[in-house]
Amino acid sequence: MSSGLVTSRRNRRTPYTECVESLGVSGFSIVNHTLLPKSFARSVEEDYWHLKEHVQLWDVGCQRQVELRGPDAALLAQKMTPRDLSAMTPGQCYYTPVIDNHAGLLNDPVLLKRASDWFWFSIADSDLLLWAEALALGMNLDVEVREPDVWPLAVQGPRAEDLVARVFGDGVRSVRYFSFLECDFHSRQLVVARSGYSKQGGYEIYLDDSALGITLWDTLWEAGADLQVAPGCPNLIERIEAGLLSYGNEMTRENNPLEINLDRFCHLEGEIDYIGRSALEAIAAQGPSQRMRGLLIDGTPCPPCGKPWPVLVGDIKVGQVTSAIWSPAFRQNVGLSLIDKDHWNPGTPVTVLLPDGHELGAVITSLPFTVSSSTP
Amino acid sequence: MSSGLVTSRRNRRTPYTECVESLGVSGFSIVNHTLLPKSFARSVEEDYWHLKEHVQLWDVGCQRQVELRGPDAALLAQKMTPRDLSAMTPGQCYYTPVIDNHAGLLNDPVLLKRASDWFWFSIADSDLLLWAEALALGMNLDVEVREPDVWPLAVQGPRAEDLVARVFGDGVRSVRYFSFLECDFHSRQLVVARSGYSKQGGYEIYLDDSALGITLWDTLWEAGADLQVAPGCPNLIERIEAGLLSYGNEMTRENNPLEINLDRFCHLEGEIDYIGRSALEAIAAQGPSQRMRGLLIDGTPCPPCGKPWPVLVGDIKVGQVTSAIWSPAFRQNVGLSLIDKDHWNPGTPVTVLLPDGHELGAVITSLPFTVSSSTP
User: Fold this and answer.
1) Does residue A143 belong to any structural domain of this protein?
2) Is B291 within 8 Å of B267 (Cβ atoms)?
3) Which residues are B361's β-sheet partners?
4) Which of A241, A297, B91, B359 is placed for a possible disulfide with A333 were both Cys, Cβ 3.0 to 4.6 Å?
5) B352 at the A interface (CB within 8 A)?
6) Nearest residue in chain A measured CA to CA from B124
7) From the DSSP assignment, how many helices (H) and strands (E) are in chain B?
8) CATH (domain of A305)
9) Which residues in chain A (62-121) have CB-CB distances under 8 A to chain B?
10) For residue B299, what is the DSSP state?
């Protein structure tokens, strides 16, 4: 669904908004009260092919940081996630589901450990800052919680490594996935992490001085001229094909981490203490009642999924589509869906009910999609 | 600023979204991860005149409720706001700034007291739910905090009373400003409050069953046919003329309540305990360094204020414009602004610097604007 967006100061600009405006951004989304570019001149499919072949700059400044710093920072970080952080070292990034007291998902940030007493949660769309601050206040912890002047810029695509190395040096080539280096840039030390919301490879640069936004963008832009660098944004086709989840779409507070297949990030055996542990243990003992699954959906390109589409077996609702789009790779519509336990086995034939009443045949697949998924 | 909005399930629909779509909504904003209609076929100025003469239905379902219920509900509510709640009785609505430990504004909700142990914060754009829940958890309070299935629908304009009385009975006529009644509607008891984000009079109906959304909208719509009822939304001209503040525009976490003239909602003399009190006392002792003021700005209709515009005296920046628009009533641009202490006296001539480099003459006024403001 696309329609007019009426913005005001309440929808914060990023240090890169001017840059994407000058490059013809034609649509935004709002994430964390901040503008996220969502479309440029090209179609989503043209953008998808470009992302898979070249390199793109993404203004993901909306990925705000929740900084925990001080003697109790590590304690608070661990309270906030069921993932075991005990072996995490400075320079690492962890994908960390954050849950409430009922094991409902509050956010699914990437956690960066800057030092033993210094963490950044790089967040999806909810005010995790308020959660962290109020916990610190209510529990009387010795930690400063704030949103620093940090604005990620993503460089994504197969040529991202070449481009980032030109600007930050060849050291970035040896950075492992979900690790980061600190790199010089105009007298600042910027976190440069090998990460990002695509499976095409790339980096996220955590600019910590908004006044340098245009300089950073322009430096990368100019260095990438011969690499066909283009402005971009998280690509709906690419992320669904890759099985990348989106907070607010695939998961909300109504969901627990087990339902969306985050079992490996849920510490349930050892002694680690975190909010929601007893609720999560109870769910784990029972087993989740639904799971995130892929769907291969018949028919011509489906409309955008602006609200959950029912998934049926016969007349019975057995789940819902959370995101869907036409996949050029599979030459079929692909979707992400939450499917009830009795029907979640890959290969199960189902029906998807569109808002206009049309029904499309579909088949359940495992995630991420694989070539064999298309011929179950 | 207006451009494409790319939405997904993450931007929640309200029980009324279908209704506004069928009536030709042409633009949305996002508030609390929820769609807020912001424009229909008419211009903002046509909409303004209609609002001042007739009656409008506003889909303000994005005003989500943070419900506190249980033995410690009153204690938690008081912790969250500097306003003294000790004399509040069930059936009352209070405007309640919510501040953090540094007296920074987290939200400026309307608080509804349903019962001695049952409150709703009807919130502006930030996830106050996370703040309230984490406080309850960290402080180990005996209170359930949740977002109930409640979706306000506003009826605003001089004919609102007639329209609401037709649907809910003449009892609503005697409801005082910022009080509410419970009224029968399809076997439910709905909170009907005399309140709303305009100064034209009206009500907010707190529908507590999303399945009845279309029924409620249609019932009001049909009852108002001869009253020229129209779909509408908070009107930028009307709210600026009335001096109504918007969280995220006029105030952010960078601001304390005294800066935006909320002194009368800040309990500083008695014994009431709330978060941020000592910080607020320190600010009050010193006096705020800036204040919210009106501006009457010269020239032809100004562009939309998408980012803060500097306010200058000579070459010195003395403040910023937070919202501005052409006022048909004053035949002049009107703005809201934060102005430094040494320059905030009404009548002070200043200059407003637009993003394109143009400078406009302006004069500082008190708020709300009055007819005499236009001839200071």
Assistant:
1) no
2) no
3) B351
4) A297
5) no
6) A10
7) 8, 22
8) 2.40.30.110
9) 100-101, 106
10) S
- In a shared domain, residues A227 and A170: yes
Q: How far is B110 from chain A (nearest CA, A)?
A: 19
B55 in a structural domain: yes
In the three-class reduction of DSSP (H, G, I as helix; E, B as strand; rest coil), residue B95 is classed as strand
CATH number, position B79: 3.30.70.1400
Inter-chain residue contact A9 with B139, CB threshold 8 Å: no
Is A197 near chain B, with CB under 8 Å? Answer: no
Going residue by residue through chain A, which has 376 residues, state the pLDDT in tens, using 9 for 90 and above: 345 666 678 899 999 999 999 999 999 999 999 999 999 989 999 999 999 999 999 999 999 999 999 999 999 999 999 999 999 999 999 999 999 999 999 999 999 999 999 999 999 999 999 999 999 999 999 999 999 999 999 999 999 999 999 999 999 999 999 999 999 999 999 999 999 999 999 999 999 999 999 999 999 999 999 999 999 999 999 999 999 999 999 999 999 999 999 999 999 999 999 999 999 999 999 999 999 999 999 999 999 898 899 999 999 999 999 999 999 999 999 999 999 999 999 999 999 999 999 999 999 999 989 865 444 3
Q: Does B305 touch chain A if contact means CB atoms closer than 8 Å?
A: yes
Same structural domain for residues B347 and B265?
no
Domain enclosing residue B135, as ranges: 68-144+256-288
Output the pTM of the full model.
0.95
According to DSSP, residue B47 is labeled: H
Q: Is A39 on the interface with B (CB under 8 A)?
A: yes
Query: Nearest-CA distance from A335 to chain B in Å?
Result: 13
For residue A275, give the nearest of B6, B33, B137 by CB distance: B137
Residues B162 and B278 reside in one and the same domain = no
Please tell me whether residues B109 and B217 are part of one structural domain: no
Q: Which DSSP letter does residue B211 get?
A: G
Number of domains in chain A: 3
CA atoms within 13 A on the CB side of B302: 32
B104 shares a domain with B27: no
Q: Which residue of B has its CA nearest to A307?
A: B9
Whether residues B132 and B274 fall in one domain = yes
SS3 A22: helix
CATH number at residue A209: 3.30.1360.120
Q: How many residues does chain B have?
A: 376
H or E segment to which residue A364 belongs: strand A359-365
Q: Does A10 touch chain B (CB under 8 A)?
A: yes
Residues A351 and A372 in one domain: yes
Which residues on chain B are in Cβ contact (under 8 Å) with A39? 4, 6
Interface ipTM: 0.94
CB contact under 8 A, A127 and B126: yes
